[in-house]
Amino acid sequence: MNRVLVNVSSSDWAVHFIAPDGRTRIGPWLLHDTSSEVDALLAWGTISPDEMEEHALNIRRWGASSVVWELTDRQLGQLIERGEGWPWTGYELRKMKKQGSTRLAGWLIGLV
User: Fold this and answer.
1) CA pair distance 31, 56, nearest whole angstrom
2) 3-state secondary structure 40-80
3) How many folded domains does the chain comprise?
4) What is the DSSP pairing of strand 64-71 with strand 25-31?
């Protein structure tokens, strides 16, 4: 299993991933429209109901949360594949979101 840290901010429902080495980021920040989209993403990493509850509590309290995923090699490969080579930075993703681009959520296809 591979430990991946998932950082979530309720500002723009931004999600960021840190690789098993604890330092390397996996892809750019992802921006979502709702907490439900973030919850679906977190569920893909198979977190427990208790962890999901803790995440929701931290979002309400602090506006931010961190969750640890234990991913199989296959899952880690899927996550990395969708992160590599993306031409957008978080700033550009924010601009796309404001313009109403539907391409932002496209990476989730096949994951959930």
Assistant:
1) 17
2) HHHHHCCCCHHHHHHHHHHHHHHCEEEEEEEECHHHHHHHH
3) 1
4) unpaired
37, 102 in Cβ contact below 8 A? no
Residue 44 is part of which domain span? 2-108
- Is 59:35 a contact under the CB 8 Å cutoff? yes
Contact 37, 31 (CB under 8 A): no
Return the structure tokens found at 105: 């959520």
Element (H, E) at 4: strand 2-9
State the pLDDT confidence band at 17, using cuts at 50, 70 and 90: very high
Which pLDDT tens digit goes with each residue over 54-83? 999 999 999 999 999 999 998 898 888 875
CA–CA separation, 30 and 53 (whole Å): 21
